[in-house]
Amino acid sequence: MKMLNFSKISPPHHNTPNARLRAKQLCPKINGGCSEGQGSKAAEASQWCGGLRLHSEKGLAVILTTLIILTVLLAAVISLSLASLIEQKISRNFVLSSQAYYASESGIEDSLYRIIKGKNYLANNSLTIENSSATISISGSNSQKTIRSEGEKNNRFRNLLVTLSLGTESVSFYYGVQVGEGGLIMNNNSSVTGNIYSNGTIQGGNGATITGEAWVSGATNSLNSVIVGSHAHANTISNCQITGDAYYQNISGSTVGGISYPGSPNPDSEPLPVSAQNITDWKAQAEAGGVINNNYVLINFATASLGPVRINGNLTVDNGADLTITGTIYVTGTITVSNGAILRLGAVYGGLSGILLSDDFISVNNNAVFFTSGAGSYLMLLSTKTGDAIDVANNANTVIFYASAGNVTIANNATLKEVTAYRITLANNSQVIYEAGLASAKFTSGSGASWTVDSWQETQ
């Protein structure tokens, strides 16, 4: 019998039909077990079966390794894809957020331009920039502002907050009455509670009284027929009752309660507190807010707000009308406030003072009423007219009257806070009662005054 040579059977061919049949014949475990007594045939069959199993296990390992590698590669591809998508989303959000920021910034810059240039603006407004938008709110007083701007682009939002303040100009009124070279006339029983400085002669009547110091500058001017409650300074003093000391070159018909200083130097001329540049600035500030080319008339209990504005015409507030001043008003014509009319500074002024100025005559009479916006706040009525410039015929406790080139007349029984003019006439029983805060009155514009950005920041 010819013996089978198993060594010539190669495991790689075990998957052919003949090989599978031969494996069933020769592999005892495939046929249900291995019996003893088969001798060398059993040994060779066992060797052949072991090779078959080893080859199957190697094939399985290759498959598993391939699956693992594929899984790792797939995971890497997915990770890279996700990273790319996330990066694209981040990049898109960054672009949209930047566009929202620039929209918010545009809202801030638009508001700053309007405030600094004195243009009209709404407290709450919006601005569209291409496909972005800015929602803007402006709050504060006439000297301080806060601007909030929310930029939006495709539901991405950026918020900016800016605060700014106005560099105010102080105009100091150190005297209840200050007079230019035209001098001061004090009729019977008129009085000034405070100090007086005059670059011209002071002429008093019966009972005319100055409770503080009286100063008269120049070598040719004099202080005449006045009761002075403190010290008197003048080249010549005549017919006066002086409670304090007297400083003079000449004196006659007067009593001095303190010490007399004959041969004293003449007081120097004192410049008036408002400069020509101040007036120019105030006019420019008013005109920046707009121009009305007509008379402005408010009568019969009507109410309105006005300013900053220039009026090329006259301003009349009459018969119980109520005008709120929201910015400097410059009138080229006359100003008349009469018959129970009301002028008030708007709340935007806070503790600052406001200006109402005219190139012509100003008349205040018949129970006109004035209100300011708080402590330390005043309303100044200013005329640049020469000759008769301002006529005041009723009380005005919160008003400064100023006419550096003209005459101011204060009628019988009127009571004021401060008057400065080239020439002043106090009628019988009229009073000027000086208030200490006038020494540091601040106005919202003046030489060198401007808006300054105090802070600029992004908020949530």
Overview of the structural elements:
The protein has 460 residues and is of the alpha/beta class. It has 2 domains: 10-26 and 39-168 and 449-460, no CATH class; 272-443. The protein is built from 3 helices and 39 strands. It has a 28-stranded parallel β-sheet that branches. The chain has a 5-stranded antiparallel β-sheet with strand order 1-2-3-4-39. The chain is elongated, with a radius of gyration of 49 Å. Mean pLDDT is 84; it is low at 1-14, 28-37 and 445-449.
Provide a quick synopsis of the model.
By secondary structure, the protein is of the alpha/beta class. It has 3 helices and 39 strands.
User: Strand count, sense and closure of the main sheet?
Assistant: 28 strands, parallel
Helix content: 10-25%
Structural class: alpha/beta
Helical segment count: 3
Coarse morphology? elongated
Fraction of residues in β-strands: 35-45%
The count of DSSP E runs of length 2 or more, i.e. the number of strands, is 39
Q: What's the pLDDT, averaged over the residues?
A: 84
- Radius of gyration, taken over Cα atoms and rounded to an integer in Å: 49 Å
Q: What are the low-pLDDT stretches, counting only 5+ consecutive residues below 50?
A: 1-14, 28-37, 445-449
Number of domains: 2
Separation, N- and C-terminal Cα atoms: 100 Å
